[in-house]
Amino acid sequence: MTQTPDELELQVLDLRPALEAVLMVADQPLDHLTLAQAVGHPPAEVQSALETLADEYTEQGRGFELRNVAGGWRFFSREAYAPAVERFVLEGQHARLTQAALETMAVVAYRQPISRSRISAIRGVNVDGVVRTLVTRGLITEAGADGESGATLYGTTPYFLERMGLDSLSELPDLAPLLPELDELEEDEAPVAAATEPAEPLPEESEPDE
Fold first, then answer.
1. 76 and 104 share a domain?
2. pLDDT at position 178, please?
3. Which of the residues 65, 68, 154, 162 has the least number of beta carbons within 10 Å of its own beta carbon?
4. Which backbone phi and psi does 104 adopt, to 5 degrees?
5. 98 and 179 housed in the same domain
6. Beta bridge mates, 72
7. What is the CATH number of the domain that holds 102?
8. Residues near 118 by Cβ (< 8 Å), separated by ≥ 6?
9. What is the pLDDT of residue 197?
10. At 187, which helix (H) or strand (E)?
11. 114 and 107 Cβ atoms separated by less than 8 Å
């Protein structure tokens, strides 16, 4: 049975696991007030828990760390393990893209700059993992933020043009008319973009790329 927003507000979630869950899917730093609203705990408790988590990750020698940057908190890979990340990225450049990645890349190419929620609205699936893969491969990159929602926007990179054998985006085939206009997706994207939406989320697309 689907729960209403009011019913969700009544749930008291364990603070630290809830913070980790929200931070895991965040694509930009989140301040403690935003996080407090998401997890349903007082801001002061959230701030304290964030600092404790950051210290614990460092003490435990985790491969990631929780940093307070640009006025908010976000997970980052730890600098000491940069060589492993670099090897993964370099080796990933030679792996063949899946059909899911190719379709997502096409949406970005023809509708850039575009947010993940709008890509999801066009494709009908959760594209978080695929977008991360494309960013890791250097094919797409962050291209600012949406003026209304603040969502991160994505666009293609010079490396994308190189891989596609193009000099500029103007050389892309005339495929854009086959994609829905963004202003037609406003109602469709709301349940995808809203973090507190109680409806069942879109299925997340697997992206092995191995």
1. no
2. 53
3. 162
4. -65, -40
5. yes
6. 69
7. 1.10.10.10
8. 111, 182, 185, 189
9. 43
10. helix 186-193
11. yes
Token pair for 202: 């879109």
For residue 125, what is the DSSP state? S
Q: How many domains does the chain have?
A: 2
Q: How far apart are CA 131 and CA 155, in angstroms?
A: 11
The residues with which 75 forms a beta bridge, in sequence order, are 66
Q: Token pair of 154, please?
A: 């994505």
User: According to the model, what pLDDT value does residue 100 have?
Assistant: 87
Query: Does residue 73 sit in the same domain as residue 105?
Result: no
Q: Which structure tokens are listed for 125?
A: 């699936």
Note down the domain range covering 161: 93-193
Could you tell me which residues come within 8 angstroms of residue 35 by beta carbon, excluding any fewer than 6 positions away?
19, 22, 23, 46, 50, 73
The token pair at 28 is 């930009």
Co-location of 56 and 127 in the same domain: no
State the maximum Cα–Cα separation within the chain, in Å, rounded to a whole number: 55
pLDDT attached to residue 109: 92
Tell me: do 17 and 40 sit in the same domain: yes
- Which pLDDT score is estimated for 63? 94
Can you list the residues of the chain whose pLDDT is less than 70?
A: 1-11, 89-95, 175-210
Alpha-helix residue ranges (DSSP H) falling in 5-157? 5-10, 15-25, 32-39, 43-59, 82-92, 99-111, 116-123, 128-136
